[in-house]
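Final report, closing paragraph on structural work. Over the funding period we assembled a curated collection of sequence-structure pairs, and we close with a single example.
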Amino acid sequence: MNQLEQLKQYTTVVADTGDFQSIKAYAPQDATTNPSLILKAVQKPEYRPLLEKAIADAPHASTEEIVDNLLIAFGVEILKYVPGRVSTEIDAALSFDTEATVAKGRELIALYEKNGVARERVLIKIASTWEGIRAAEILEKEGIHCNLTLLFSLCQAIACAEAGVKLISPFVGRIYDWYKKSTGTDYQGAEDPGVQSVKRIYQYYRKFGYDTEVMGASFRNTSQILELAGCDLLTISPDLLQKLADSDAPVERKLVADANAAIVDIEKIAVDEKTFRFMLNEDAMGTEKLSEGIRAFVADSIKLKKMIEELKK
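Its predicted structure, as stored:
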C-alpha cells in the first residue's frame, strides 16, 4: 500500500480543496473548503459555470446571498464525491459577532436542506474566537454541527470542547511558519511546534473524555502529516495527497487514544471568557495567527464579492 492508503487505516482523510476532480481522485471521507479555496476554484474555467449559475439563478439577490448560494453549490457538488461531510465556512467578517454567526449558520443549513442535503452531512466552519465558539455552542444544540477553524492555542481547543463543538481544525502549518520565522529553525518531524500543538490537544481531549473530533489542518509537508497518523481526521491539500500516494514508505501510527492520553502530564484547565482571553493574549503566536487568518479570509471574501458584482453588471 502507498502512504495514503496506509494513513487511511489510522486516520480519516479529508480533502482540503474546492476542486472536485482532486476529491474524486483521492477518495477522501470528507472535504473542507474556505473562502480562499472557493476564490481559487472559481477562477478556473471548469468551475466558472458554478459562479455564473449562482448569479443567473438569483438576478435580484444581494451579493451576499449569491455568495451563500455559491458556497452551497460547491458543497452540494463536493458531496457527490465524498461519503461523509463537507465543511462550509461562514464569512470571517462575522468572527466577533455571535448573533450574526448563529443566524448565518442557520441560513446555510436551510439552504443545504432546500437542496436535499441533510444537516448531518454539513459542518459549519467558524473562526475560533470567543464569540465564534459561543455561536457554535448554540448551533450544536440545534443539531447544526460545527468545525472550529483558525485554531492555534490550547485555550481555543478547550473552550471548543467545553462548548460541545463537533470538530476543531488546529492549523499545523501556520504554527510551524510562525516558529520558523521567529527562531530561524526549520523544524522536522516530532520537533515541529505545529505537530506538538495538535498532539497536546489530542491528548488533552482523550485524557479528559471530550468527544470533540480533532482534525489537523494546514500542512506544509508530508512529515507533519505522518507525525499525526492516528489523529481523528487530517485535512490535506491535493499536492500533499499526491505525494503520499506516490510513496510506499511505511506509515507508523503515532497517536493512540488509550495508550497516550491517560498517562500524559496535563492538568485540566477551566476556560471561562476571562481565562480564554488572557491565555490567548499570552500566546503571541496564537494571537497573531488568529488575527492574520481572519484578515486573509475576509480579504478573499471581498475579492469574491467584487468578482460577483462585476459579473452582475
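Residues 3-312 form a domain with the TIM Barrel fold (CATH 3.20.20.70). The radius of gyration is 19 Å. We thank the funder for supporting this effort.
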